[in-house]
Design brief:
The chain is of the alpha+beta class. It contains two helices and four strands. The protein has a domain of 36 residues. Helices cover 30% and strands 22% of the residues. Strands 1-2 form a two-stranded antiparallel sheet. A two-stranded antiparallel sheet has the order 3-4. A hairpin with a 5-residue loop joins strand 3 and strand 4.
Length: 113
């Protein structure tokens, strides 16, 4: 650290804090006194005659009923020659139908009770 850097640091960061009355403490004191004076007179200014008062009431909140709808039944989906559709709950998919060579056709074999 050079001598110049030490001098800059000493000027920017003195070892002793500043003491005494400064402009900042005077401004703060004046602002605080003004705020207390205004707050002290506010109740006296706010007093009104009973005939001047108006009663305000809030409108009652309307009760909103939200319905919970039953979810759609989750059945299985089977694909047939006409497309893919949901099958009834009492039906099950046994497997995929095969062609005459044993290759899968993509059509599900559905068996119902």
């Amino acid at each position: 650290m050079t001598a110049t850097e030490r001098g800059i640091l000493r000027r920017c960061f003195p070892r002793k804090p500043l003491s005494g009355i400064t402009a900042v403490t005077i401004r703060t004191t004046i602002a605080l006194a003004a705020a207390l004076a205004i707050l002290g007179t506010a109740p006296a200014l706010a007093t009104t005659k009973p005939s001047d008062t108006v009663m305000l009431t809030a409108k009652k909140k309307k009760h909103v009923v939200r319905h919970r709808y039953a979810p759609a039944p989750r059945g299985q989906i089977a694909c047939g020659p006409a497309g893919c559709h949901r099958i009834p709950p009492n039906c099950r998919i046994q497997g995929t139908l095969l062609d005459w060579r044993g290759n899968p056709t993509g059509i599900d074999d559905v068996r119902c009770r």
